[in-house]
Design brief:
Elements: E1 35-41, H1 47-54, E2 60-66, H2 70-83, H3 92-104, E3 107-108, H4 110-129, H5 146-159, H6 173-185, H7 192-204, H8 214-223, E4 236-237, E5 243-249, E6 252-258, H9 268-271, E7 283-284, E8 287-288, H10 292-309, E9 311-312, H11 320-328, E10 342-343, E11 346-350, E12 369-374, E13 390-399, H12 409-425, E14 428-430, E15 440-445
Parallel strand pairs: 1-2, 1-12, 2-11, 12-13
Antiparallel strand pairs: 3-4, 5-6, 7-8, 9-10, 13-15, 14-15
Amino acid sequence: MSSGRKSEGAGCITWWGFSPALDLLSLGPVGSEDEIKVLLVGSGDPRHILKTIAGLQDKRLHVYVTETCMELVARQMLLLYIALIPQEIMGTTEKTEVFLEVFGNCEIRSQTEEIVRQAASQLHLFVTETIETSTHDCFNTTQLKFKERDELAKIFKSWTSSSSSQHPAPVSMSKAWDYRVRQHLGSRYDSREGCFDWDLHMKLHKKGCGVINKRQYERWRGQGLAFEMREGIYQIPNPTLLSSRVFSRAGDSVAYRGYWGDIVSSPYLSFGIETDDMSMMKTQNGKHIKTAQDISFANVQGLFQTLSRRRRNLSTSKPEKETEKSSMQIDLKSLMIKDLMHLNGVSLTFLPLESVHKLPDKQKYSHFFNFIYFSVSCLHQLGPMLGQIAAPDAVLVMELAKYILDLNKEQEAGFAKKAASLALQAGFEARHDGSSNDVHAIFVEQKK
């Protein structure tokens, strides 16, 4: 391992995406349909879901999500649970802090751990009790296989166990993180600060991410802490960032539990490098005044405020005083899935793992999806049969490899070329209206 393993930087599981959040509906015509259907393949986190909901106008939206492992499904559900906690139970500022802490920190505060445990407990009950009909439009797991739901329940159950001196965490997150850094840098580990600085200034900053702060980036690269917005002790392992990876040892397959995600590109990419508020991108003496953490906070808080405005009141038939009284009686510890915010015109369904190649065989999904998104890690799932599940005038969005820092320019270009070739085989052609860039490639169905 003396030379290091450059391919290990991005990890084998996408806890967060390698591109900023997209409002997918802004990328193409939504047509005359009342309900827009979106398919997300391997997005890794709910950034596109939240951003697309925020831009939704008078249409109904149904998002279908398929991932590569159940740990990613569980984590997406947890992050959505936090996002949908009613404002009277958790204020927008606190909710934003908790969301980002769970999203990008390998270690969290005790207060955040308690929220994760409570949410995981409710999600466990929800998954085990929901068989045919979901009680919440944004947590539809009825399409998952029984073994997948069992695995999902097992994951949520593991998150409910508390870490303490009497019951220590099964995995030391600090050791797991350090192992990955050592594995990636190899003989360069002793000069790791210089490696971190090089990746930041010569790669991320040159790719347009100058807002990522040196101190914050090096703190994340060294310890896995991306968001520290409150004074507190960050020492409890974040269970949502743990997973198992199978290695071959002396001819046997052995599963090791640890942190196997990105240790190079950073969770700042999802919410922290783009903003509609240009005042947050101001510079002084050549340096950004605001940081990627500041922008992440502002963006996520804005998305949560939009969710609150879309909230649907399920108690409209009750007298106003009774409704106020019942909402005040609910606190975070007694919050159930049905008590989370229900959003007007928004539905979310989780599909079985890697189900893309099976969807064309089901009549229900024939010419069904208006927008289809593939992440950089799921390009291999894009097949020639994709056109069969695409609605007329469908838009195909493909995340490119710009922010996979271990790749060189030739490899980035090769990835983009491969993506275009696979899209062409599926019956899509590049759209030449300026919507494509070096982060996402946009395709439309070929005209017959």
